Amino acid sequence: MAKKVAPAALQTEVLNDEEWMKVLKRKGLIVSIFMIRALRKDIFDAMSLVVDVYSDWSGPCTGMVSILKKIKMEIEGDALSYATASCDHVTDLKRFQGKSEPTWMFIHEGRMINLMFGAHCPQFIKILMTELERIQKGDEHEFLIDVFEKSPEEIVRLKIQEEMKVAKETARKSRKVAEAKAKYEAEMLHLITSLCNETCLLLFPWIFKDEEGRRRDKRTSPPYVELIEELLPENYMVEQELRKRMNADLLQQILHELVASILIKSKYSFTETSKQLLFDGKCMFMRLKIVEGRKQLDVHNHLCNILFNESTVPESEDNLNEDWYAL
Questions:
Q1: Tally of structural domains, the chain
Q2: Within this chain, do residues 190 and 229 fall inside the same structural domain, yes or no?
Q3: Model pTM?
Q4: Mind giving me the DSSP string for 47-62?
Q5: Is 317 helix (H, G, I), strand (E, B) or coil?
Q6: Is the C-alpha dihedral spanning 236, 241, 242, 245 positive or negative?
Q7: How far is it, in rounded angstroms, from Cα 216 to Cα 295?
Q8: Considering the domain boundaries, does residue 5 fall inside one?
């Protein structure tokens, strides 16, 4: 009794570059296939090969095996053969890694002549029949490129993906800008509402020195004590105190950013003498909040009235009394 011969595998398994090169040497057409129905046998005079390109994580399309068998039986002979190829192990197919979408590559004499994505059967059959007829008649294909090159369809898809990526990044940046703007506006609103009843005061370094120029504690400095115990209690609360050494740059910054609201109505400018006094040791910055009963008053002008008996800072040192120690 003759030994029963096992049927040949329906699909040639391609797992590396060497096996892939062997497949490419086959004559005729190589196609990655999803489904074919009602194909004309007379267009298969040229040998054809169908390759299922897949990623390792998703595996080949096993659900297609029965369809492939039926097509193979209808075609008969060696006019059509199949193969599966892992894009994770074949260099020419690396660009398809990580994708689960069916990819049908049509190859003739080792070169790609068409490519289709998806599982639309009528479209696949149309492409397959068109390419087979072109092979039989010797007509030119729409393109003829190496299998490692990108097809027109791939280029279009990459362009769309890049445009989507750019649009997504643009939207992300716009959203980030909008969020930053909203945060900034919220912070500004908070500052405006919370600081509208606040002002600041700058105390000269000399008030924290005794008659001999030695440093002394603020509680033993008469000008500070007078300010805290007599001038401010019924008018302002001290929210914050900060000791800091002044310099020309910091002074300029303060004039523009911190006390501009106080000096805006005044033409006062620091003389070299007053600057030397400011730079001779650490100044004290005080953040003051007007008390509840005085909120109807202008927070800055009221402080000037307390210190200088004027609603604004005097325009020159000549108009300041000899006890001037704060700004």
A1: 3
A2: no
A3: 0.51
A4: -EEEEEEE-TTT---G
A5: helix
A6: positive
A7: 34
A8: no
